[in-house]
Amino acid sequence: MNRTYDLTCDDSVDKPVPVALRDGTGTARGEAIGREGHWEVQIQRIVHGTLPRLGKVTSILFYCHPQPTNFFNQELRVYRSGDGTEIGRTPTFEVSGFPPEYQPRTLKIENGRLSADLAFYGGNDPHGHPSVLRRVTWSWNGQQFVKRSETDAFSSRVDLRHERVTVDGMGPIRIGMSGEQVEKAVGSPLTIVGDFSHCAEGTVSGAPDGLSLRFMENTLVAVSVEPPATVATASGMRVGTTRDELIRTYGDEISTVSADDRSERLVFAPTAPRFGGRVIVFDLKDDHVERFTAGTRDAATAGPCP
């Protein structure tokens, strides 16, 4: 996390540029980086393992954000664990349009290969929302790292527009799942903002805008819905539902609690033991649902991750 690495920002320059990192972040400037003003660089993941003919190695995934552009690149490099010398890097993907995005937490060294899941762009995917998740593996051929396989990570994808929200989650997405389990359940990659090991907000590629997932220590604790999403609860409650409709629908199992901003908040808390104390929290404005969140009580009543 505290050393100088020679990087190319995924071959955006011909010759590697030394970038000094401290606590896993650093900045590159100067003529060597080309036309950008500077690069902002950070380490996204470090994994250790053993590879044939190489022995103990350390693989590092770098995130490079050329400024003042709105895109980023990633590059995966491998070093000898003993003395830190670089062995090589995985090859750049030759694709038309935007490059695929590594899913950092999936990076592994196992079974004699380096592997990771990457989100590739489909034909109609907008920038920032790649929807095709593939698992890629690489091995060392004695001179360089070469791609050995590239397969679809999932065989089918779930259309979340037609799933209903309950205290247990949303369709195949269940409270208590890890991020990787959520991706497998819906067949689409997650985009995570925040510290995944602590508190992070996630969105599912291809899901309705306004649908977000909250993770604590890589465990799903809440599902939130706000405009423009139109998904509903199992009882048909959605953004725009009136206060009276909530009361009629949930009866004695819904109550009013105070909110930090003094707006009205109603909490549906089913009493059956099988629900484990999970709830759906409805935030109201002018007697209409403005947003609702399902999950554990602590997560559903708290605000977004700091």
Characterize the structure shown.
- 7% of the residues lie in helices and 45% in strands.
- The chain is mainly beta and 306 residues long.
- Strands 16-17-18-19-23-22-21-20 form an eight-stranded antiparallel beta sheet. Strands 3-4-5-6-7 form a five-stranded antiparallel beta sheet, with no helix packed on it.
- Strand 4 and strand 5 (55-67) form a beta hairpin.
Features:
306 residues, mainly beta, single chain, 7% helix, eight-stranded antiparallel beta sheet, five-stranded antiparallel beta sheet
Helix content: under 10%
Shape: elongated
Regions with pLDDT < 50 over 5+ consecutive residues? none
Sheet having the most strands = 8 strands, antiparallel
Radius of gyration: 23 Å
H/E series: EEEEEEEEEEEEEEEHEEEEHEEEEH
Distance linking N and C termini: 24 Å
Helix/strand-derived category reads mainly beta
Biggest sheet strand line-up: 16-17-18-19-23-22-21-20
Number of DSSP-assigned strands: 23
Number of helices: 3
Average of the residue pLDDT scores: 91
Quick recap:
The protein is mainly β and 306 residues long.
Describe the secondary-structure layout.
Blueprint: E1 4-7, E2 17-20, E3 25-29, E4 38-51, E5 55-67, E6 73-80, E7 86-89, E8 101-102, E9 108-110, E10 113-120, E11 132-140, E12 145-152, E13 165-166, E14 169-170, E15 173-174, H1 179-186, E16 190-194, E17 199-204, E18 211-216, E19 219-225, H2 243-250, E20 254-258, E21 264-268, E22 279-285, E23 288-295, H3 297-301
Antiparallel strand pairs: 1-2, 3-4, 4-5, 5-6, 6-7, 8-10, 9-10, 10-11, 11-12, 13-14, 14-15, 16-17, 17-18, 18-19, 19-23, 20-21, 21-22, 22-23
